[in-house]
Amino acid sequence: MSKQFDVIVIGGGPGGYIAAIRAAQLGFSTACIDAWTNDKGGPALGGTCTNVGCIPSKALLQSSEHYEHAGHAFADHGIDVKGLGLNLEKMLGRKNTIVKQNNDGIVFLFKKNKVTSFLGLGSFVKAVDGGYEIKVAGKTEETIVGKHIIVATGSNARALPGTPFDEQLILSNDGALAMTEVPKKLGVIGAGVIGLEMGSVWRRLGAEVTVLEALPAFLGAVDEQIAKEAGKLFAKQGLSINLGVKIGDISASKKDVTVSYTDDKGNAQTGVFDKLIVSIGRTPNTNGLNVEGVGLKLDERGFVAVDGDCKTNLPNVWAIGDVVRGPMLAHKAEEEGVAVAERIAGQHGHVNFNTIPWVIYTSPEIAWVGRTEQQLKADGVAYKAGTFPFMANGRARALGDTSGMVKFLADAKTDEILGVHIVGPMASELISEAVVAMEFRASAEDIARICHAHPSLSEATKEAALAVDKRSLNF
Question: Where does NAD(+) bind (predicted)?
């Protein structure tokens, strides 16, 4: 007889493993199925985020930033570095160690919370009395039964039509994190989060990086003022970003990749690169899930169709994270995982899409929450704006990183914060104050009246809030 569980989670990424832990905390017998394996064939829980996404990319971003600082910025601090060298093998080894620590941490959490882990590919078999039969295809094949099923199968890198990833010359995020030598010339198709972050890593380590972006505007989802400031800073660093590009033929030889494209003026161009990273978005992963076998509905874009509570068209089947609508962000998946587990328990799990923060971990970092100025204009919302530059912030000067600014957008009548946008040092940490403020529907005046430690980068947040009322104190 198949093992029976109250909740079975298919997928062990940020959404899946968090959903499984929360379900177990609520008293449900819980299983989590995940197919990622480490180099020894054991479980590598954490999904794309932990294995080839958020965690390893941040490790390399940090290491490459240290390398760049040692070669350039340290001299301004009176630190002379002689004989600077790059040990890329050790840098990648450190990244792999951090990944494994996160993998092992999730294994520990599963044991602590009594979540049963299955290593293999999970798929629907059929509806049965008491729920759904799920097949686990691993080293051996078995079936388990769950009353509630949470689909958390994530997403896959989108390839250009006719140009599959070989992870040797034409790279997804996976291959971009594992190059064993620094390419002399690196091409990046797509100026989104992954393209900018991976381009930044390899530029710092010595590659000549050319970014090709189809859209005419840089970072169109970002507040326009912030995006323009970031674009200037990236160009100053030596990141060549080409907008309005139309990609033509891509051909790979044994040693390089040739990309034919048309620039924004209609001129034919050719780029020859040692490596090419393709980062044009991600597609929902329903491969091998056997959705047709049980009639699980997908929408027109291939996502699992869900309502506002993450319910699918099938009773007691839920779906979360990258495989459903909404932003493809690890923390969004985590929040949905917790909310679904609590809804199964009869509680009122909640995810506020309006206060989900976004971060690009370049240098400077870019982070935002809420609406942009262009969105407010398009919606006809009367607003006030306030900005404060980090060059006027004492802590930023001490750090030696004064690039960027903080920007507040508030309702013209009520002063409620509608959006906060940051480009600058530690933006990923500073944005949390804005998220909390917006969750409690705070006004810009509320932030302006809160005492912030001096000297701190967070004072720039307070000053931007003051600037909404045109009374900034330090600029």
Answer: 190-197, 213, 281
